């Protein structure tokens, strides 16, 4: 049996399984039907790269449509940093410069692609932009490398950052390039769809790193309207970077927020995703998904309740459940069984739980540096507690003084323990009991509680972290699992931008 019988968790290494068993979620369908939301946001493991692969495959079959996928490597983004530092150290200045650079790069990539097509090259008026074409480079080179080389050749190091930004559009002849490109697209009657993936490669959580991604996002949004939709660009961004942009970019609410689609996963979609893969992996012709699941599970894992038992160790993300089930099937195979049982799940549960907690710490280390310190105080405790009990545990952190400087600064930003609990809620570490729905509500997308924490409020550490923290309760019973609900909806507060940025951007 293959080590990853249900497929590789990395979409770029999983094309065969992905294409044969892809589950079309409502998010996928909405991106097919409309390009109104060009910024796609999701946490690690929510299937951003899988969407890029399947969407690009879909559009590649459409007439008069060409596809471009921009997927920079880590070293390429790192290489851009020293070039973009020439725009100064102010966030808005860096963003302005990077936005023009990315726009020029996208335009030149499309022009180069047109010129390499024997039927389309005749529509490009090359006479006025020959020097740009000759200096841009071949299609084999990455867009990041070519932008870096172009800026190094053109920017005057003796100028001030402000002057470099002011002159950049004229130096790059952006208006001329744009005119030639749009005229060619109109004559050829062809549309380009650009997908930008892995924008977090080489990402550093400072103003420069955030501005590089922000500049690309702004370009993706602007290019559609500027080109009269002859060019449509989609940028796939990780949630923590998106939050950093919301914190640093004063134009975030006006320019970006309304252009965003957040990836949502729930039990229904994850169950169908898993069953589709099981059908392909085991070459079954059973159409009913519940029957497929039951054919390869046994005892407590049978039925929807059994799937929920496995799902309790995840953060409702495809990557989590696939890792868990791949390991479970591998263990079952080593015991000469075709069906997985609860023991197979539990045998790898501790390492998976530790990985989930480490992922949480790494994902938010730049915008919530003290997160690891606050989660550590819950080690060995009961997973369910009152707000008062949780606040008492958290209070011990406020007296720490021998920890890393950035963690200490983060701790000092909190006015009280309740603010800490609100942040822990908004990153999905703890959930809050909702009397109306009779369930614990968890958040994985930055949403704050829709009511205040009172001393008697019931809180619950997310079950996927229980084993990593060594809580006194390591198993979740089925009736308790029914009280777990992961919330993804976002409600925009009417608070001021400054308050909003502090609450959402800093968690």
Describe the structure.
By secondary structure, this protein is α/β, with parallel strands linked by helices. The chain has 3 domains: about 40-260, no CATH class; about 265-345, Orthogonal Bundle (Helicase, Ruva Protein, domain 3); about 355-505, no CATH class. It contains 25 helices and 10 strands. Strands 2-3-4-1-5 form a 5-stranded parallel beta sheet, with helices on both faces. It has a 5-stranded mixed beta sheet with strand order 6-9-7-8-10. The radius of gyration is 25 Å and the shape is globular. The chain starts with 14 loop residues before the first helix and ends with a helix. The model is unreliable at about 475-485 and about 485-505 (pLDDT under 50).
In short:
The protein has 507 residues and is an alpha/beta fold.
List the helices and strands and how they pair.
Blueprint: H1 15-21, H2 26-33, E1 39-42, H3 48-60, E2 65-70, H4 74-84, H5 91-115, H6 130-136, H7 143-154, H8 161-172, H9 174-188, E3 191-196, H10 207-226, E4 231-238, H11 239-248, H12 252-255, E5 260-262, H13 267-281, H14 289-295, H15 303-311, H16 318-334, H17 342-347, H18 349-363, H19 371-376, E6 384-386, H20 387-395, H21 405-412, H22 417-426, E7 430-434, E8 439-443, E9 458-461, H23 466-469, H24 478-481, E10 484-487, H25 497-505
Parallel strand pairs: 1-4, 1-5, 2-3, 3-4, 8-10
Antiparallel strand pairs: 6-9, 7-8, 7-9
């Amino acid at each position: 049996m293959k080590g990853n019988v249900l497929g590789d968790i990395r979409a770029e290494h999983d094309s065969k399984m992905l294409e044969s068993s892809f589950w079309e979620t409502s998010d996928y369908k909405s991106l097919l039907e409309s390009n109104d939301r060009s910024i796609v946001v999701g946490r690690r493991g929510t299937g951003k790269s899988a969407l890029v692969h399947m969407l690009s495959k879909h559009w590649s079959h459409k007439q008069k449509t060409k596809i471009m996928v921009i997927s920079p490597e880590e070293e390429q983004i790192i290489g851009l940093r020293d070039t973009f530092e020439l725009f100064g150290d102010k966030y808005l200045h860096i963003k302005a410069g990077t936005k023009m650079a990315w726009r020029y790069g996208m335009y030149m990539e499309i022009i180069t692609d047109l010129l390499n097509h024997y039927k389309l090259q005749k529509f490009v008026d090359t006479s006025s932009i020959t020097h740009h074409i000759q200096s841009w480079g071949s299609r084999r080179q990455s867009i990041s490398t070519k932008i870096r080389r172009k800026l190094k050749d053109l920017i005057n190091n003796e100028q001030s950052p402000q002057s470099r930004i002011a002159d950049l559009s004229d130096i790059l002849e952006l208006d001329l390039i744009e005119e030639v490109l749009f005229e060619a697209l109109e004559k050829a009657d062809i549309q380009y769809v650009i997908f930008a993936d892995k924008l977090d490669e080489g990402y550093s959580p400072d103003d420069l790193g955030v501005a590089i991604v922000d500049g690309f996002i702004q370009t993706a949004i602007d290019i559609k309207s500027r080109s009269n939709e002859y060019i449509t660009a989609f940028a796939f961004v990780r949630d923590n970077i998106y939050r950093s942009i919301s914190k640093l970019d004063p134009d975030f609410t006006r320019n970006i927020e309304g252009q965003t689609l957040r990836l949502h996963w729930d039990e229904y979609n994850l169950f169908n995703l898993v069953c589709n893969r099981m059908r392909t992996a085991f070459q079954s012709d059973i159409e009913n998904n519940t029957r497929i699941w039951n054919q390869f599970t046994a005892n407590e894992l049978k039925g929807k309740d059994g799937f929920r038992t496995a799902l309790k160790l995840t953060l409702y993300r495809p990557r989590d459940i696939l890792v868990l089930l791949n390991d479970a099937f591998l263990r079952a195979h080593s015991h000469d069984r075709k069906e997985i049982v609860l023991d197979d799940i539990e045998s790898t549960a501790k390492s998976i739980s530790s990985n989930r907690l480490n992922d949480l710490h790494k994902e938010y280390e730049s915008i919530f540096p003290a997160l690891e310190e606050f989660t550590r105080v819950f080690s060995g405790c009961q997973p369910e507690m009152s707000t008062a009990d949780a606040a008492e545990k958290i209070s011990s952190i406020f007296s720490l003084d021998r920890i890393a400087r950035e963690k200490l600064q983060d701790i000092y930003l909190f006015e009280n323990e309740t603010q800490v609990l609100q942040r822990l809620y908004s990153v999905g570490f703890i959930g809050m009991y909702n009397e109306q729905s009779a369930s614990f509500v968890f958040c994985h997308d930055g949403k704050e509680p829709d009511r205040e924490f009172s001393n008697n409020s019931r809180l619950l550490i997310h079950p996927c972290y229980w084993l990593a923290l060594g809580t006194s309760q390591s198993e979740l019973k089925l009736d308790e699992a029914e009280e777990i609900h992961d919330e993804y909806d976002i409600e925009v507060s009417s608070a001021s931008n400054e308050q909003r940025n502090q609450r959402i951007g800093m968690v």
